[in-house]
Design brief:
Blueprint lengths: L4 E5 L6 H12 L2 E4 H14 L7 H9 L3 E4 L2 E4 L2 E2 L7 H10 L3 H6 L1 H5 L7 E5 L2 H5 L5 E6 L2 H14 L6 H17 L12 E4 L5 H11 L4
Parallel strand pairs: 1-6, 1-7, 2-6, 7-8
Antiparallel strand pairs: 3-4, 4-5
Helix pairs in contact: 1-10, 2-4, 4-9, 8-9
Bound molecules: cytidine-5'-monophosphate.
Length: 217
């Protein structure tokens, strides 16, 4: 039997990361934040002075990326990248390079290597459609743009960053439009995915819905 995967996709700041991490904890599964991979890749490209439109150069860099996770922390070689990848600027850069098909292909194996026993919970944009099409449970998790902007605002303030609510709403709308309209792995509710609108749900209610959709055999 293949190792079970729960794939949670959805737009920026929908809360999918928090929900996915809790589902993983409840089941004793591994957790992969695939957005962090795109963010770290963009961060590494900017650090190396690469042009964010140089598709072949970015893909070559991504294939050799020495990246690993330790809990919430992401490391590039031995160096923790910390909150540098959590800024809006890093999110925008990630979304730009994420539109490049060669770059996405270069990151496929890296992501699939996280599928380890007893199971994996992962969140992103194309976890159920492209990276793990045989996922046991697929979820499209969303919330209204205003609610998502509020959540992102709170998250940024908690991390000590400056944040402006109207600018965040605008930024989320632009990022959603870019993620949904790109030709490579666009953000969409894929076939077989449960729709979970969390606008009026608590984190625990969202977690419980997903746990109810999962059955071990
Ligand atoms: O989820 P997060 O906001 O951290 O993702 C940052 C960006 O990375 C997204 O806006 C999206 O463009 C890209 N991404 C992606 N596919 C994934 C995860 C993230 O294209 N599986």
């Amino acid at each position: 039997m293949s190792i079970p995967v729960i794939a949670i996709d959805g737009p920026s700041a929908s809360g999918k990361g928090t929900v996915a991490a809790r589902v993983a904890k409840a089941l004793g599964f591994h957790y992969l934040d695939s957005g962090a991979i795109y963010r770290v890749t963009a961060h590494a490209a900017l650090q190396r002075g690469l042009d964010l439109t140089d598709e072949a150069g970015l893909a070559a860099m991504a294939r050799d990326l020495d990246l690993h996770f330790d809990g919430q922390e992401v490391y590039l070689a031995a160096t923790p990248v910390g909150d540098a990848i959590r800024t809006e600027e890093a999110g925008r850069a990630a979304s730009r390079i994420a539109a490049l098909p060669q770059l996405r292909a270069a990151l496929l194996e890296l992501q699939r290597a996280f599928r380890k026993a007893p199971g994996l919970v992962t969140d992103g944009r194309d976890m159920g459609s492209v990276v793990f099409p045989d996922a046991r449970v697929k979820v499209f998790l969303t919330a209204s743009p205003e609610e998502r902007a509020q959540r992102r605002y709170k998250q940024l303030i908690e991390k000590g960053f400056d944040a402006n609510l109207p600018a965040l709403v605008q930024d989320l709308r632009e990022r959603d439009a870019r993620d949904a309209s790109r030709s490579a792995a666009p953000l969409q509710q894929c076939t077989g995915a449960h729709l979970l609108d969390t606008t009026d749900l608590s984190i625990q209610e969202a977690v419980d819905r997903i746990l109810a959709w999962y059955s071990p055999d």
